[in-house]
User: What shape does this take?
Amino acid sequence: MNSENRWNKNGVSPNRKEEFKMDRGKIENYTLDDIFEIFKEKVDAILIIHAELDCYKAISRKGIFSDIIKESGNYNDLIEKLFYNFNNSSKRIASDYHVFIPLYGKFRGKYSKRLKLVYDNTPYIIQMTIYPLDDKNIYMLILDELDNSEYIQEFLTNEKMNNIQNTYLFSMYVDLIKDTTSSISVTELSEEPMVAADLKYTDWRMMIVNMIWSEDQPLFLEHTEPDYLKRNLAPGRATSFDCQMQNLEGKYIWVKLIFSRAETNNNDDFRFVFIVQDIHENTVELLSTLRKNEELASKDSLTGVYNHGRIETELYNAIENKKVSERSLSIMMMDIDYFKKVNDIFGHSMGDITLKHFVTISCDFLISYNIKMGRWGGDEFVAVCYDINASELMTIAENMRIKISEAKFDTVGNITCSIGITEINKNDKVKEAFERVDKAMYSAKSSGRNCVKVLF
Assistant: This one.
């Protein structure tokens, strides 16, 4: 038999063509009633929803849906249970975000969505289909459990994409002229965009501000204000700012909020893409590095207390804040007696060791108080003392003076110090307050050293 006899021009065997005719005969026997029966048999769950009344009734339930879905209940609870949770997890999102749930339960037309649902520690892939039944927010909701193995390759591919895009937590499309939002995507909930019927941008903005860290809310409101975006973003340009925002678990994390204006030929067309990017780990690491560098830049390299610049800033800020504060505030200045002789007799290396030991004793003694100490220069030290008045500081300083005079210093033996104190009042200026404590310290020097003097 030649090839022409074995195969027709469409590449189909003549014998197989007869089989096709027989198969076609089978499907021609199906009726609408048959399809309804198959539908009832095959579909795992059918529910009737009344979105306005926030209720549902289960018409049929099979498999896992017999346990997951009650015979009737609240529609919003059903939304949260089915598709308002974390992908690949049974964890629920933070309660503050529940304010958006009603917006995701209203549909204008037919809608289909694939869900990943975890029940009893087992993941399931669910196909959800919505059929509106009238114009009054009544829907038929159909749920089917899909075969996991059939979609494993797809989800492996999605997982790779998620690894690439996992820093993007949220995105949506905004039209400022129409005041609308669309194509809302919450990555942690689903790879697919979510439907939020008639969610205005201005409404969304005032709802989401509650998820922003309180100190960052003014910045958020300023940079997301429609007139600000129209004024500051030319077509094709983007703007962003960093802030702390509550994630779906209810924890505050660092995010970057990005607005990108669509590039069109119409300058009066104000359409934007809005993205929330997770930058928490990098920001925490950066802030930690900055704090370490700030600390290094603020510390005296020899003694480890604040350097001159840092203690001067502390002194200035404390005196300025006193103008609007009822907290007690005092300043203490300390100077090691006859320190020049230590350097002259024992050398500068031993002088450095003596300074470090002096600071160690002083800081250990003051550790239980709200006192910030810094090296003013040479063997002079200044301490800003919060919540301590002059009388209280006099007692503290006297006990510290005795502690220092009784301590043993390597090679040098014993040393003493002179201490000056002043209390800050609301009318004090920085210069006059510092001159007062400086005079108090020199008063201690001129009174025979190794003593404490207060000047009001």
Q: What stands out?
A: The longest helix spans residues 280-298. The chain has 15 helices and 16 strands.
